[in-house]
Amino acid sequence: MANRTRKDHIITIEDPIEFVHQSQGCIVNHREVGSHTETFSTALRGALREDPDIILVGELRDLETISLAVEAASTGHLVFGTLHTSSAWKTVDRAIEVFPSSEQPLIRSTLADGLRAVVAQVLFKRIDKKGRCVALEILIANSAVRNLIREGKTHQIPSMIQTGKKYGMVLLDDSIMDLYKKGMISPDEAYAKANEKSRFRPLLTAPPVDFTEV
Q1: pTM of the complete model beyond 0.85
Q2: First-to-final CA distance of the chain
């Protein structure tokens, strides 16, 4: 979308390059870890010297890469990145927890200022036809969410998502339940991938034993 509608400089850093985007409205430069650069952090540090407007980081793997990405976002760049987590609020936690405890108050503040949104996705095998479908959790960083991040109260973000539907926020479990009600996924897979499993237990014909309640 940005490539078609904006006049910007886009740099992507991936391992490997998954999609090659031809320059349209934007100038698009691809960097592949292993071929063009040694690490994500090295590529990101170099990218910041090339005056980019938009940066895509294929994976935020380590402290240095996350630190550089947050720094880039705080200086006016539009930064997209991926983390392997199971929900939006855990993504925020993961980005903070890689830093030493002494640095976490500063990174919480910087991340709160620069964050715009977090989208978590989980893929499901469809039962209505061949293929897969996706359940999404969407967190929009409004002022209330930013305050929770600054104050280290990220565990309250799910409740904020629940009450923030008017801003476009969606809980992952709500998205999963919607797919189930549409007959697109099985109750067993819905239960297996849900965060609040007690909500999905009544859907199962033979619920597994919950050892936390034994």
Answers
A1: yes
A2: 51
Q: 10 Å Cβ neighbour count for 10?
A: 22
Confidence of residue 214 (pLDDT cuts 50, 70, 90): very low
Residue 152 CA from chain centroid, whole number? 19
Please answer whether residues 140 and 164 qualify as being in contact, where contact means their C-beta atoms are separated by less than 8 angstroms.
Answer: yes
| 151 φ, ψ (degrees, to nearest 5) | -85, 5
Domains of the chain from N-terminus onward: 1-82 (3.40.50.300), 85-197 (3.40.50.300)
Rounded distance, CA 139 to CA 37, Å?
32
Report residue 131 as tokens: 């293929």
C-beta of residue 52 within 8 angstroms of C-beta of residue 28:
no
Distance CA 52, CA 72 (A): 10
Does residue 4 contact residue 23 with C-beta atoms inside 8 Å?
Answer: no
HSE, side-chain direction, 13 A CA sphere, residue 25: 10
Closest CA to 89 of 167, 136, 156: 156
Residue 155: CB partners within 8 Å, gap ≥ 6? 89
Cis peptide before 187 (omega within 30 of 0): no
Say what the pLDDT of residue 212 is: 58
Give tens-digit pLDDT for 22-48. Answer: 999 999 999 999 899 989 999 999 999
